[in-house]
Amino acid sequence: MGDPVPLTRAATANGSASRGPVRTSVRESVFQALMALLMDHALEPGAKLSIDGPARELGVSQTPVREALARCESEGPVVRRPDVGYLAAPLLDQAGLHDLYDIRLLLEPAAAERATRLPSRGRALAVNSAESVQEEFVVRAAKTLAPGGRRTEPTWE
Fold first, then answer.
1. How far apart are CA 155 and CA 63, in angstroms?
2. What is the pLDDT along the chain (157 residues), one digit of tens a residue?
């Protein structure tokens, strides 16, 4: 798995230090630090994510770290396995990537056609709404792939 990556590096890697004084909650800053590490691939796919290490390193209690990991799980880059804990999600294989594009091909033409029938103010709302729905479908589709690219049954809740 390699050497541990300092979480504090993530705060400057995502550009937050250059934006000026932005007030964020502890919960949000821990989440942003974890997401930056996951998106930068500083944490290898399949790497076990502890709660104690980030809490110590960031100088926070375990609660915001636990909440950040749960939020990362709901957004896709983290998976939780019974009796194991949180892991960095595996990368998509070629079949998974094709599935994601198939979903886009189903959603985007219908959303674009619908948006053309709306007044201009409504079009902007429809486009934002379609992007939000598309993003949720893509995340859910990604979760139907088990490690190793095997398909699992989707959980459409």
1. 27
2. 444 445 544 444 444 444 555 567 889 999 999 988 888 888 888 899 989 988 998 899 999 999 999 999 988 889 999 988 999 988 888 888 888 889 989 888 888 888 777 776 655 666 666 666 666 666 665 555 545 544 444 433 3
State the virtual CA torsion across 100, 106, 108, 113 in degrees, nearest 10.
180
Residue carrying the six token digits 């919960």? 27
Q: Alpha-carbon distance 26 to 67, whole Å? A: 11
Residue 157 CA to residue 152 CA, distance in Å, equals: 15
Question: What is the token pair recorded at 88?
Answer: 């960095």
SS3 81: strand
Instruction: Report residue 117 as tokens.
Output: 């029938």
